[in-house]
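Observation: inputs received (chain + NAI).
Thought: call the complex predictor directly.
Action: predict_structure
Action Input:
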Amino acid sequence: MQNFDLVVIGGGPGGYVAAIRAAQLGMSVACIEGRGALGGTCLNVGCIPSKALLTSSAKYAELSHLSAHGIGVEGASLDLGAMMGRKDKVVGDLTKGIAFLFKKNGVELIEGWASIPEAGQVRVSTDDGETMLAAKNILIATGSEPTPLPGIDIDETDVLSSTGALALSEVPQHLAVIGAGVIGLELGQVWSRLGAKVTVVEYLDRILPGIDGEIAKLAQRALSKRGLKFQLGRKVTGIERGSNGLTLSLERVGKDVTESLEADKVLVAIGRRPVTRGLGLDALGVKVDGRGFIDVDDAFQTSVPGIYAIGDCVPGPMLAHKAEEDGVACVEILAGEHGHVDYNTVPGVVYTDPEVASVGVTEETLKEAGTEYISGKFNFMANSRARSTGETDGAVKVLASPGGKLLGAHICGAHGGDLIAELVLAMTKGATVEEVARTCHAHPAMGEAVKEACLDALGRAIHA
Ligand code: FAD
Ligand code: NAI
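Observation:
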């Protein structure tokens, strides 16, 4: 039986980063992955293919807006097969890159599906049989999968999860998206830009729950302007397949009204759930919460000593960079170092146009908790770089303690995902709005809106 200091189950951003860091720290490490490629959800069917398609579709959509710049484009056409081919190549190159990083760092990749018969042992099953490994410590990084909608069968042909919506061979006529969360908006915008009519049906009376309400409203306005249709406050109760396509039955939430919606494809994007099936957690006594996420302590240890868990399969934001941070912190603690993740400063970015980026608390959370705060806002309309590029939708909003310490920052706007990094660093370092406002920002740049929002919190914005 092969013997390792650490066996990592799952080769996604949580697992593969943990495996590499553990090897750097001198541990003998194996990483087990069952899907036939490294990179997990993120590289194979998540972050990377979605961003590749968002970029390609943005370039296509931009062609019809270039006349404002005095540029005429004639005869532009869409080769969806080539666009998908490019996406697949980006994914393939990156997943192979991780296999190279494993070799470079001495991590042993073992292909197959893992289970844990007892602490200290891992069984790997493949079509060819089973192998047993001995492990001083075991790290579960088995990630997540789309949550199904009860009573609705996802066939990945007409009724799609995000995985199917990343691989369509034709542009739908009418794509109905269930869920105005991150996936619904990103993939909804991809297909809208490529020519589909897209209707997003959302249970709540707002889009992007969890994002600051004022910023989510700006995003909804901008996305509507770019073609997405929203039907909020509606629950999908069923989908019927007919000769002319699909009919969704909708219930108006809190009202005795039913409606229907016709579409040729439906994307179900109502959240993701942890993957732990087949690991044998029950028999081991590894505790999970009511939604199936694995309970861990501050050192990522489960209820069973020697078994740890990180990433999407534990409670917390389901984001690739959070999974990576978990993985690094977990193995650093195992090596006797001081690994730590500050979950208050984990940023989130929705890569739509405009982007929606956030870190820290929302205004709603501060109000609910009765916390005293100051806030500042600056609209991109008043930013000279935004005016020159024509990307004037949205705003930067900052929230701070009465003494000025940053508590949260929220951006709706072009490049918001890049602009938030400055505010994440500021929050991590405990900086105040005054300190950010006194930092010299290049001109003309979108980042000046960050400075102005901080000045606004102090009651002295210059360009507002
Ligand atoms: P995963 O990436 O899910 O990896 C887990 C791996 O474990 C999988 O490869 C699985 O095959 C393997 N596995 C499971 N069980 C076993 C077993 N028993 N034996 C062996 N292997 C096993 N996040 C962002 O931060 N930014 C984005 O832009 C972003 N975009 C996304 C877009 C989409 C469409 C989706 C679906 C998700 C997106 N996410 C994004 C979320 C991100 O993909 C996840 O948060 C991230 O992948 C979680 O990493 P993980 O390592 O915890 O799990
Ligand atoms: P989500 O949690 O972001 O949004 C789901 C939406 O569906 C919510 O608005 C919810 O109210 C709504 N909903 C739930 N049940 C419904 C129903 N029956 N009818 C109508 N609406 C319903 O989940 P999503 O979009 O599936 O994404 C899953 C996870 O993937 C996210 O938590 C996110 O962390 C991650 N992700 C991150 C990305 C990024 O960082 N850019 C991109 C894509 C996904």
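Thought: report the result.
Final Answer: The first helix runs from residue 13 to 24. The mean pLDDT is 97.
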